[in-house]
Amino acid sequence: xxxxxxxxxxxxxxxxxxxxxxxxxxxxxxxxxxxxxxxxxxxxxxxxxxxxxxxxxxxxxxxxxxxxxxxxxxxxxxxxxxxxxxxxxxxxxxxxxxxxxxxxxxxxxxxxxxxxxxxxxxxxxxxxxxxxxxxxxxxxxxxxxxxxxxxxxxxxxxxxxxxxxxxxxxxxxxxxxxxxxxxxxxxxxxxxxxxxxxxxxxxxxxxxxxxxxxxxxxxxxxxxxxxxxxxxxxxxxxxxxxxxxxxxxxxxxxxxxxxxxxxxxxxxxxxxxxxxxxxxxxxxxxxxxxxxxxxxxxxxxxxxxxxxxxxxxxxxxxxxxxxxxxxxxxxxxxxxxxxxxxxxxxxxxxxxxxxxxxxxxxxxxxxxxxxxxxxxxxxxxxxxxxxxxxxxxxxxxxxxxxxxxxxxxxxxxxxxxxxxxxxxxxx
Length: 427
Description:
Layout: H1 18-33, H2 37-44, E1 48-57, E2 63-74, E3 80-87, H3 92-108, E4 115-121, H4 129-143, E5 152-156, H5 162-176, H6 200-215, E6 224-228, H7 232-243, E7 247-253, E8 256-259, H8 266-276, E9 286-288, H9 290-293, E10 300-303, E11 322-324, H10 333-341, E12 345-347, H11 349-352, H12 355-369, H13 375-400, H14 404-423
Parallel strand pairs: 3-4, 3-5, 6-7, 6-10, 10-11, 11-12
Antiparallel strand pairs: 1-2, 2-4, 7-8, 8-9
């Protein structure tokens, strides 16, 4: 067995620390792979952590200084890849964890990227568009030496979007003195974005859920689905799955939940939220306590919002057959143990939500080629990768007698370690 210098132990005190969770799952996979101590040190340690302080003149004339991060966990298999989030609770530990998950996610679906992530501590809800643009451009300028099509390719994440990516692309291009579309993904179509990118993460969730249903002898038409989150991932998964015949019985959001045992009309619910600003009060369903909606009996539960929503304090109440992790890190390591006892079939986040980074890879390829694909081609190639990756993880889990999450980590670590061994250690 591998000798780890400091294997991480998860307790109630650090259960919801994302970096501790990522490290604990890494340790489990590394020990089962018998990775030597030196390789474990390399794989556990981010290659680069950048902290920048961003002075911005606000609309009222005041100067404020914001803190931003970019962590490049691994570039062994290719350029770093990962989103940038804007939120008041961004922390270096969170960004570290997300960067490492991107390394493993890209390796699970076998695309030639490493893992990176970025974040800025700010509250977009109280900032104007002009202020957000200033923050984005100054942040880009501060990290410009460390990003690029061959170095590190950012993308949208929480509270960022295609407009944010357009600002980053323009700032980078102005410094480069020529247009560099491949520096970011998730861009507007008019600036080199890919068809199918907005739907990709939700579509990938649907694809692997279909594979799990087939494996378990179930059908979409008779499957009850609960989705936590109604944003880009959850909302798109709900829309696509509803169109594919799934019965979406509940949607859970930050301000409430709506339930209909016969299935919600997702298109009508989206119109209702656009008109009212909330999913509550929807005529096609009944409001219910959001704290209770996730524990409805269902066939498929898709947590598609934030980290740590399933933990040791509530995992025993989960009543689904399949858990498809649309969000990053929605389940804590202590909750994993409970779900295993309940025999829940878990599709881990580094597989379940990899549709987004896969189509980001397609966008990067298209930008570099200057040749763009139609949406049918994008979706066909996405399905091929998601199906192959699902089959590989399930087969690996069965062959080695581990759960799906451990199998996914083992496959990912093995691929990254193999690349490092082939490259050798430069000194």
